[in-house]
Amino acid sequence: MIQQEDTIVALATPNGIGAIGVIRLSGHDAITIAQKVWKGRDLTKQASHTLHFGRIIDGDIELDEVVTSLFVAPRSYTRENVVEISCHGSNYIIESIIKLFIKNGARAAKAGEFTLRAFLNGQLDLSQAEAVADLIASNSKASQQIALQQLRGGFSNQLQQLRDQLVQFASLIELELDFAEEDVEFANRDQLKQLTHTITRVIGSLIQSFELGNAIKNGVNTVIAGRPNAGKSTLLNALLNEERAIVSHIPGTTRDTIEELLNIQGINFRLIDTAGIREATDTIEQIGVQRTMEKISQSALLIYVYDAGEISIADLNSDIENLQKPGITMLVVANKADLLNDEQLAALPYTGKTIIISAKEKQHIDELKHEIYNAAIKDQLTGHETLVTNIRHLQALQKTEEALIRVLEGIDFVTSDFLSMDIKQALHYLGEITGAVTTDDLLENIFSKFCIGK
Amino acid sequence: MIQQEDTIVALATPNGIGAIGVIRLSGHDAITIAQKVWKGRDLTKQASHTLHFGRIIDGDIELDEVVTSLFVAPRSYTRENVVEISCHGSNYIIESIIKLFIKNGARAAKAGEFTLRAFLNGQLDLSQAEAVADLIASNSKASQQIALQQLRGGFSNQLQQLRDQLVQFASLIELELDFAEEDVEFANRDQLKQLTHTITRVIGSLIQSFELGNAIKNGVNTVIAGRPNAGKSTLLNALLNEERAIVSHIPGTTRDTIEELLNIQGINFRLIDTAGIREATDTIEQIGVQRTMEKISQSALLIYVYDAGEISIADLNSDIENLQKPGITMLVVANKADLLNDEQLAALPYTGKTIIISAKEKQHIDELKHEIYNAAIKDQLTGHETLVTNIRHLQALQKTEEALIRVLEGIDFVTSDFLSMDIKQALHYLGEITGAVTTDDLLENIFSKFCIGK
């Protein structure tokens, strides 16, 4: 898969009509290839990090007036020579220029190939490279912050520290193997035990953080359920009221695939289409129950709404009992409070915690949002400095944890060679996250999910 | 409409997910505003045309790692200070950065406002500014070449020369007005007549060039007509065969609004949906005839196809007679030649020029393309160095021509003041093209059609 000798080219900006498009070239010959089709100052003689106005020419034919950015190796994203051509945003022109570069010795870049080169050339480790894709896909403050922190190496540094500590012991135990006949212990078993405990705890905490990290990265699946006329649609509109414009005024984002996106304090909540639930709730023991429950079981949060002036104690308790699922947080919301007086409100049938609102009059909606945020996020935030958001990292951490548990179990009983094997396994899986250990398949798998041009 | 004191900001690249997005700031304070949210080398102290890696920060919060391009006035597109931020291509990040700039004193740019400033600051004249939009919209070699030539000032220079010559006479005639009592002639009437003739001829030629210019810019409307089973669809596919991939492999281009785009020697031919014609041709005198004729009358070129082995002389002549329209070139194509022998081919019923092909076997398709190109383009190319592609320019040229004809008609009869008025009118309309004469309305009208960010 990996050929690094050639110079690659791709459009780095989105397709479509815009004022400008940026075409990126990277590789040893990037500057000399650009120079071949360039009318302007000699690019091969210019300093790195400079901008040059000029023309792209194909023989006698001028293709465009452009501005060229020059990044001389190793001072570039890929640590190779990089040239970026900022041309007029016509698809015809962009395509013509890319073809021209290919005619002059470049090759069309594969998905993620620029970032792959940045990784292979030591500019980024693997988890940082993955953060680049996360950053591009980020659609909320929280997801952007996590991705940026990962890109900046926060996660990598933490793993590196754990790894360094383990490596020390691994080498001491290796040493013991060399002196196996003499039955010496270079690696203090108590210290190893303590260290392994510490690392296992850290790894365990990272594993636990995935639930939250994943919710932040992909949004918190949230179902609104309730009987007909409980005011679910009005509630949905009240919740989305101001936020809607913010999430939807740039076209082409995630809105195509999900019903509605609600942003509370930088976290996206995906409000799942509850049409099934809407129809099913009054015959909840009957035919719709399975579909309803499926939707709820795929969610992290359930907002159950009832009409405070209408529902009977029996129906309310039955609904709540039926909808409750282990591991899914339920918020109980009494709606249409504007139609009740204080006395009636005090006599609401449900005895558990209830958020009393009027969706129609937009009363206590902010309070509800606060509760939604708290229910999904707040408790989990405690104690997690780093959040794991990537399922590949989760799996590697889980395998690391398994290996470390084997180390702990065997530390007092097994011989150095078995201990050494388990520690090496832990090191291997930790190394997979940052790319200290990789295979072509792994890289292919990761970078093929990138967009072309990155 | 026109406020130039403030600093404007917009996304310069298309919306959508891409590796990077480029945000453009222009105005007196562009660099100081960028510096306010910047972590990296002090941008206010850097040279023009340099690139800087750094971070965009909102107080304590980092928004992204970016590369910033610096263009110090007047060495920029707008001749103002310009800063371009190349950030990760997440809509969330792009939106956050734009909002941050607005919070720090920039204003969201209106459509075309960067180019408007380039015009107002004398970087481009009006027809060059319009060429920027044409260049972005260009979708073929020919349309791109015309737009680029116009951007480079070819058209403007030609108009400027005409204008300079007229201005001389205008000033001499003005002088005559000052000495009106003395009945002197500073402006030689014969020379003026000769010059006006020359200019009128050039203007006339430019007006004539619009038909071709417009065809090149917008594509040549081409209808394929013929009886059922004449092989129209097969012909369409044979024509599009190789070209199709070229015009369609970048999504979001003009393909949504037209049926098929065929590129011959850099010219786009818009093959109009002929479903109406297909059904109507065998009952051509009947109900479908009006719709068919409407489509044909909107086209510049008609390709009439018939089945060489099937049609009778009577039907053929009747079709051709019915389809022929003044001003629309018709190509007569005999299809299914592979089923006939030489003798049969020699005995084809139509006596006019016929292109004999087999759409199915792809015989003589290149020859047909050559004939299509020649019919639409070749004859018209002669004698036009500059092609007018813009209807606003066409109208201004027509008004110039009218004024010049009034000059010619009156030159021997009317007094200096009338002559002066007509010459000034001609100058006015010529000046409108390049923007020597403008109104806010005119500018508003032109630039509001641009995309935002250009």
Automatic annotation (TrEMBL), chains A, B:
Annotated residues that bind GTP are located at 229-234, 248-254, 273-276, 335-338
Q: Name one GO biological process term.
A: tRNA methylation
| Binding residues for K(+) | 229, 248, 250, 253
Swiss-Prot/TrEMBL cofactor(s): K(+)
What GO cellular component entries does it have? cytosol
- The reply on keyword Magnesium is yes
Sorted alphabetically, the keyword list is: Cytoplasm, GTP-binding, Hydrolase, Magnesium, Metal-binding, Nucleotide-binding, Potassium, tRNA processing
Keyword flag Glycosyltransferase = no
Task: Locate the residues binding Mg(2+).
Answer: 233, 254
Looking at the Swiss-Prot or TrEMBL record, what is one Pfam family this protein matches?
Answer: TrmE_N
What is the superkingdom listed in this entry's lineage?
A: Bacteria
User: What EC numbers are recorded for this enzyme?
Assistant: 3.6.-.-
- PROSITE patterns per UniProt: G_TRME
Q: Where is the TrmE-type G domain?
A: 219-377
Explain the purpose of this protein.
Answer: Exhibits a very high intrinsic GTPase hydrolysis rate. Involved in the addition of a carboxymethylaminomethyl (cmnm) group at the wobble position (U34) of certain tRNAs, forming tRNA-cmnm(5)s(2)U34.
Q: What is this protein called?
A: tRNA modification GTPase MnmE
Organism (species): Mucilaginibacter phyllosphaerae
